[in-house]
Amino acid sequence: MDFDSLARETSVEWIGQAPHEPLQPGSRPLLPAQDPFYEPPEGFQHAAPGTVLRSREVELAFLGLIPQRLHATQLLYRSNDRNDIAQAAVTTVVVPAGHDRARPCPIVSYQCAIDAVDGRCFPSFALRRRAKAHGSFTQLEFVLIAAILAQGWAVSIPDHEGRDGHWGAPLEPGYFVLDGLRAALASEQVGLSADAPIGLWGYSGGGLSTAWAAEVCGNYAPELKIVGVALGSPVGDLGNTLLRLNASFWSGLPALMIAALRRVYPDLDAFVEQHATTDGRALMRMLESTSTAAAVLRLHHRSLSSYIDKPLNELVETPVVQQVFNETRLGGTAPAPPILMLQAIHDQVISVHDIDTLAAAYTAGGARVTYHRDLLSEHITLHPVSTPMVLDWLRDRFANRPLPQDQVHRDWPALLNPKTYLGLARLGLVAARVITGGAV
């Protein structure tokens, strides 16, 4: 029996396995690698991308500790990897309180800065009540997810690295994001309109996956009504970022990047095995079960050169590494939807020159780009400081208002805009409700 026949005879929400029981009082959610919910049913590859394979209701909590009064649904859905091989992925969908199914509700796909291989950092785990995900940036981003809900919009929070932690992989993060939206809009359990206007938003590592979604959406998911994409400090050039961050405070990030890309590129995996020292191979194994913050703290100011048998600058010039750098670089396709790009000039993680290059490439390709270069912020502070700007911009896109005439805001700090302070005050109220477990 094929998948379509099976879907007609049962329910597409519960193909292959019985529904999972909710967490028992006091118990913790299973890690993704141990949770049967993440395993796709037999024959799922015959379903169309975005098909819901399984669903469940989950409790969310800030930092895993403070439960939130939210209606959250997790969807296992069919998607593709960069080689067009069928994959299953999970998104967590939340609708605002009091959502009226009879009225259109915009939806924002928010891509967290997972930046790790460890499944503890995946949003579908880290956002859940009693999840032990210490060191996951995702748990801190809950406040921004709540800010989206406070606008009256639904939100999809996909595991955009897939089930195997493919951080930095080209193309497929975009597929996971877009198919997560397809699943959210198709799910009767969620109750959204199929023609709901869609916004995309992500910062740093989340900005990278959001950019891939923007680049591939025109061909991969043209039916989705994506009206705006907000890219906060996306990792425009992984190769440049790796070399610049090596031996810096943030040197754990390029190490995590290599650990993830080994899973994507078999030739790179063999290359790393060939040139890594005993300590280097042990480091790669350790990073597979290390959260983002833990990796940064453990490896600060360490050089990757101490874990390989040849100078780093020599190895990165080899064809196998250059191929990875070329394929993972953004800018090959101009996005179809309007783009808002935000970048701190004094960013210590992502070079403003890389984002200048990306903005120029998108503009030259015909994309409608609004680019904000911030003079006073840096990588960590720009995300919250720019949140009021992003929400205002998405609100205008959902209302179909004209795009700003001034396409490039050169060196103008968001903190000099009075609207920023009003927006930050609202964000503070949202944060207070999240911290106290109040409804959003």
Order of helices and strands: HEEEEEEHHHEHEHEHHHHHHHEHEHEH
Corresponding CATH architecture of the largest domain: 3-Layer(aba) Sandwich
Please describe the biggest sheet, giving its number of strands, its sense, and whether it closes into a barrel: 10 strands, mixed
Estimate nothing, just give the exact number of structural domains: 2
Largest sheet strand order: 1-4-5-7-6-8-9-10-11-12
Approximate helicity band: 25-40%
Q: Whole-number average pLDDT?
A: 91
Low-pLDDT runs of 5+ residues are 1-21
Present the secondary structure layout.
Blueprint lengths: L2 H7 L42 E7 L2 E2 L3 E2 L3 E10 L5 E10 L11 E5 L11 H4 L10 H4 L1 H9 L3 E5 L13 H15 L11 E6 L1 H16 L5 E7 L5 H8 L6 H13 L1 H10 L2 H10 L4 H8 L12 H4 L3 H9 L11 E6 L7 H13 L4 E6 L4 H20 L9 E2 L8 H18 L5
Parallel strand pairs: 6-7, 6-8, 8-9, 9-10, 10-11, 11-12
Antiparallel strand pairs: 1-4, 2-3, 4-5, 5-7
Helix pairs in contact: 4-16, 5-6, 7-8, 8-9, 8-11, 15-16
